[in-house]
Amino acid sequence: MATDVFEMGDIDIAWCPGCGNFPILKTLKETLTELAIDPKQLVMVSGIGQAAKIPHYLKCHFFNGLHGRALPPATAIKAVNPKLTVIAESGDGDMYGEGGNHFIHCIRRNPDITNIVHDNMVYGLTKGQASPTSRRGFKTPVQVAGVILEPFNPLAVAIALDASFVARASSGDREQTKEILKRAIRHKGYALVDIFQPCVTFNKLNTYQWFKDHVYYLDDSHDPSDRTAAFARATETDRLPLGVFYVHPKDSFEENTQMYREDKRPLCERDVDVGRLAALIDTFKMAG
Amino acid sequence: MKDPKGMATRRDVSIVLCGQAGQGVQTVETLLTRILKTAGYHVFATKEYMSRVRGGANSTTIRVSGKRVSALVDRMDVLVPLNAGAVAHVAERLSPQTVVVGEREVVADEAIESNRTLAVPFTEIATEIGGKIYSNVVAVGAVAGLLGLDLDAVATYVQRFFAKKSSEIVANNVKAVQGGFDAIGKLDVPNEIRLTFKPSAKVNDELLLSGAEAVGLGAIAGGCNFVSSYPMSPSTGVLTFLAQHGLEQGVLAEQAEDEIAAINMAIGASYAGARAMVTTSGGGFALMTEGVSLAGMLECPVVIHLAQRPGPATGLPTRTEQADLELALYAGHGEFPRILFAPGTLEQAFYLTQKAFNLADKYQVPAFILTDQHLMDSYYNLKAFDPARTKVEKHIVKTTKDYRRYELTRNGISPRGIPGYGSGLVAVDSDEHDEEGHITEDLDVRVAMVDKRLAKGEALRKDIVRPELVGPKDYKRLVICWGSTYHVVKEALGEMGRTDTAMLHYSQVYPLHPSTADLIGKARKTVAVEGNATGQFRKLIRLHAGVDVDEGLVKYDGLGFTVEDVVEGLTEIINHQ
Ligand SMILES: Cc1ncc(C[n+]2csc(CCOP(=O)(O)OP(=O)(O)O)c2C)c(N)n1
Ligand code: SF4
């Protein structure tokens, strides 16, 4: 497959120079290309924010919806047409803040989608307020004395909810990120990939260097099927592990709905069965 | 309605059953309406209930007739109080003509003016058979005896109704219904309660269903194959119905984590090519409004069933009201077109829900079905719906390489593609976007896109459903109503027998049919009947048709209008004019 199928050509990208979103975009394009995904079978779904603009910079179908609401439409798109590859990608504020409830329930529902979160520990688009993953003490124009809330731990939450696939990557390391993304996209069921992303404009605390100093990779001694170990790794705070934390293969939402048990056609290709409807109407004649 | 001679001219018998939640009032309603319909009588039933699972006071009103009946009346020809609190609950509706059937202690209530009380020991009979639990079926037997139904037919029906239960339970229920029937036989029953009108075999061939079921069937007929919702009375019946028949009818029904997720799922489903709907009530719909705006912006078809109940906020959870018209009309920020249906009959609930899917698809707009608790919970028999009369009109196109989702067209309707069908890419964006669906801050494009969306609003005007005029064409007075008040206003006007007064019922409340100004302008006096305190439809008419409706008859105590309410209210208004 040509390496440029996802290229948009000469477009105006609304990110600041040096932003960690750029390497994520590049890595994602490479991943999709290497996985030989057909852009005509790929739907990118996002919310609102800087990271959420990513579908505009890739050649594919996309649904750029509301702030915090990427996961419900992504779930539905996959359920209506399971032939599509669906990726829900947005920022940490979008996915974990405004969309926190959907995040929890999407994990429970387990649609076969990939959820990529650009975790820059700040709200970029609204100019630098704290996000759910901001570290304590982080000063912003709103959190003037520094963040006093405990940071949200997406990986620990996902593992606690027995998510099907949980991983963390860092935008600075494109090669490893690509490998993680490949596994996530290939995985059947909900796959979370939280990617550290420096915001060079509004987050002067969690810089490229900070991320370098604070991460390490899980090695072969980590067994991703061991949920307890995965949870323990996810709650480490001193240095933050990267890699695939947890994998639990299970049936996806679409499979569990039973809509595809007998009839494999996507919902969007089906028509009303007038005979069945007439039979159902008839049951109201016979007061049984 | 006062009828000293009794049955000779009586057109229907109105039976009220009242008891606490958990006493099986619902089962009695189901059994009696079905028994009566099976016997060939026309029936209507509707219930009012409290927001609790046990205790309180709930009642159902069942009308049985030789002609069609579809409206609620205050009048109680028969009252069956199932517990001590029941009489007090319906005391205002008692008249000297009311025959009261119940336990001795219960019918000995001082609120009962008539001496027409019949003491039947429901509990004692039930206990002898096998337990107190059968009391409500004893009551069914008593009512059947009172009406003079055929015991064998009733027993056969009861047997069939409980057929899935154990043989002991079936036998006990048959004994219970017989026990009630026999107990009545031993008493001195007022003759005029016996049904004298002719049963008809035709009724037997008709449907007996509720508003919730009619909307659910209409959705299936509309090609609905995706519904996501969050439970909220009184809209839940539609979700339950679609979930129960989902697998066989091809509808994916999902209980979302909240209403925000529900509507965003429905819009995602629609983007992917499904015919999607949500069903909710005021409080849930309030949460959905950001999604309504999204549907407007993305131009994604979506059908929103909004079953109204009293607000603000949680209001009266199980009661009825028509006060979310303005909410539905204005929900969502920004400007974009929409369609609002408000079915008044079960036929309309079916055919308009079906149509909502076609129109939402054709114009790529949100289409609403505004119902309320009264319509959701009302049952009556009616001619079978004809699926052949409905057609699922699909407007999805196969995309080409140069496909643009928001192509500018004269009528504002851009061909709608879906991902995976054709060689083009389908891009939708909640931000203002260009023809390709990409974010733009080009203000000229903004103006073009606003114009495009609003142009669809103009285009859809040719599909507006005409309001139904009932009564004399050369009317001097016009009574305007919308939604679930159809039958009650129609019957009230029939009752009043005025040859100068007609009814104009709107089953589509927005956009208003262009005939509105003429139809209303022609009348010398006009009254709008609606179930809210501020006359929301009257205001809508003023704003969108530019005519004033002279008077309003409103009700907002949480109960549906009764025929008596409307007769009284209209008579008073007419006398004052
Ligand atoms: C309902 C709603 N509330 C608030 C906003 C404003 N808003 C836009 S983006 C954003 C935060 C985005 O933060 P994040 O998801 O971390 O993305 P980033 O910009 O950092 O990539 C907010 C609050 C909005 N668009 N919609
Ligand atoms: S504000 Fe931050 S996240 Fe947004 S583009 Fe600039 S650097 Fe990137």
TrEMBL record, chain A:
<keyword id="KW-0411">Iron-sulfur</keyword>
<dbReference type="GO" id="GO:0045333">
    <property type="term" value="P:cellular respiration"/>
</dbReference>
<feature type="domain" description="Thiamine pyrophosphate enzyme TPP-binding">
    <location>
        <begin position="52"/>
        <end position="195"/>
    </location>
</feature>
<dbReference type="Pfam" id="PF02775">
    <property type="entry name" value="TPP_enzyme_C"/>
</dbReference>
<dbReference type="GO" id="GO:0016625">
    <property type="term" value="F:oxidoreductase activity, acting on the aldehyde or oxo group of donors, iron-sulfur protein as acceptor"/>
</dbReference>
<feature type="domain" description="Pyruvate ferredoxin oxidoreductase beta subunit C-terminal">
    <location>
        <begin position="199"/>
        <end position="261"/>
    </location>
</feature>
<keyword id="KW-0786">Thiamine pyrophosphate</keyword>
<dbReference type="InterPro" id="IPR032686">
    <property type="entry name" value="PFO_beta_C"/>
</dbReference>
<dbReference type="InterPro" id="IPR029061">
    <property type="entry name" value="THDP-binding"/>
</dbReference>
<keyword id="KW-0408">Iron</keyword>
<dbReference type="GO" id="GO:0044281">
    <property type="term" value="P:small molecule metabolic process"/>
</dbReference>
<dbReference type="GO" id="GO:0051536">
    <property type="term" value="F:iron-sulfur cluster binding"/>
</dbReference>
<protein>
    <submittedName>
        <fullName>Thiamine pyrophosphate-dependent enzyme</fullName>
    </submittedName>
</protein>
<dbReference type="GO" id="GO:0030976">
    <property type="term" value="F:thiamine pyrophosphate binding"/>
</dbReference>
<dbReference type="InterPro" id="IPR011896">
    <property type="entry name" value="OFOB"/>
</dbReference>
<dbReference type="Pfam" id="PF12367">
    <property type="entry name" value="PFO_beta_C"/>
</dbReference>
<keyword id="KW-0460">Magnesium</keyword>
<dbReference type="InterPro" id="IPR051457">
    <property type="entry name" value="2-oxoacid:Fd_oxidoreductase"/>
</dbReference>
<dbReference type="InterPro" id="IPR011766">
    <property type="entry name" value="TPP_enzyme_TPP-bd"/>
</dbReference>
<dbReference type="GO" id="GO:0046872">
    <property type="term" value="F:metal ion binding"/>
</dbReference>
<keyword id="KW-0479">Metal-binding</keyword>
<keyword id="KW-0560">Oxidoreductase</keyword>
UniProtKB/TrEMBL annotation, chain B:
<dbReference type="InterPro" id="IPR002880">
    <property type="entry name" value="Pyrv_Fd/Flavodoxin_OxRdtase_N"/>
</dbReference>
<dbReference type="InterPro" id="IPR022367">
    <property type="entry name" value="2-oxoacid/accept_OxRdtase_asu"/>
</dbReference>
<feature type="domain" description="Pyruvate/ketoisovalerate oxidoreductase catalytic">
    <location>
        <begin position="21"/>
        <end position="181"/>
    </location>
</feature>
<dbReference type="GO" id="GO:0016903">
    <property type="term" value="F:oxidoreductase activity, acting on the aldehyde or oxo group of donors"/>
</dbReference>
<protein>
    <submittedName>
        <fullName>2-oxoacid:acceptor oxidoreductase subunit alpha</fullName>
    </submittedName>
</protein>
<dbReference type="InterPro" id="IPR019752">
    <property type="entry name" value="Pyrv/ketoisovalerate_OxRed_cat"/>
</dbReference>
<dbReference type="InterPro" id="IPR002869">
    <property type="entry name" value="Pyrv_flavodox_OxRed_cen"/>
</dbReference>
<dbReference type="InterPro" id="IPR009014">
    <property type="entry name" value="Transketo_C/PFOR_II"/>
</dbReference>
<dbReference type="Pfam" id="PF01558">
    <property type="entry name" value="POR"/>
</dbReference>
<dbReference type="InterPro" id="IPR050722">
    <property type="entry name" value="Pyruvate:ferred/Flavod_OxRd"/>
</dbReference>
<keyword id="KW-0560">Oxidoreductase</keyword>
<dbReference type="InterPro" id="IPR029061">
    <property type="entry name" value="THDP-binding"/>
</dbReference>
<dbReference type="Pfam" id="PF01855">
    <property type="entry name" value="POR_N"/>
</dbReference>
<feature type="domain" description="Pyruvate flavodoxin/ferredoxin oxidoreductase pyrimidine binding">
    <location>
        <begin position="218"/>
        <end position="451"/>
    </location>
</feature>
<dbReference type="GO" id="GO:0006979">
    <property type="term" value="P:response to oxidative stress"/>
</dbReference>
